[in-house]
Amino acid sequence: MTSAWLLVLIAADRLVRARFPHRQARLCTRKVAAWLVGSVCACATLFTSHVLQPVFAFTSQSFKWCGPARSPVTSYTIFYSNTWPILQLIITYILPSGLMIVSLIRIQIMKDTKKLNMIQIIKECMDIDERNPKSTNNIVDFHDAYLLINL
């Protein structure tokens, strides 16, 4: 569980660096990273701490089942059998994967928007040069335009 959420932190770091390039020095520091990693580890420990209960053990030598005993049906047994797998699936796989995908899509959208803005600026600069043929300083030539578009 911890590794999935650490990947979410990495994706969030990339998003912050792409979205706020001038604030990244203040937002993406070692101290902030240490606090976030510590928080993820603490939350992961708290999320799985219910297995430290005395009722959680090997139920029999023949089955190799690690968990609460199934014979006396308690509220914890019902939780562990029915609710815990769903919570684990959502918190360990679905939620982190969704957040990472959203982060990557957002970064790609910002990259494409920046590219379209550069293309528009280059077109405007070329239109200015075509209207004034006596202009000696060429604002953007085709080689520079190609480099700017393919950043």
Describe the secondary-structure layout.
Elements: H1 2-19, H2 24-27, H3 30-48, E1 56-58, E2 66-68, H4 75-131, H5 142-149
Antiparallel strand pairs: 1-2
Helix pairs in contact: 1-3, 1-4
Distance between the termini: 36 Å
Radius of gyration over C-alpha positions, nearest whole angstrom: 27 Å
Anisotropy-based shape = elongated
Number of helices: 5
> Spans with pLDDT under 50 lasting ≥5 residues?
none
Order of helices and strands: HHHEEHH
Number of discrete domains = 1
Characterize the largest beta sheet: strand count, sense, and whether it forms a barrel: 2 strands, antiparallel
Strand content: under 5%
Number of strands: 2
Mean pLDDT: 80
Percentage of residues in helical conformation: over 70%
> Based on helices, strands and strand pairing, what is the structural class?
mainly alpha
Order of strands side by side in the largest beta sheet? 1-2
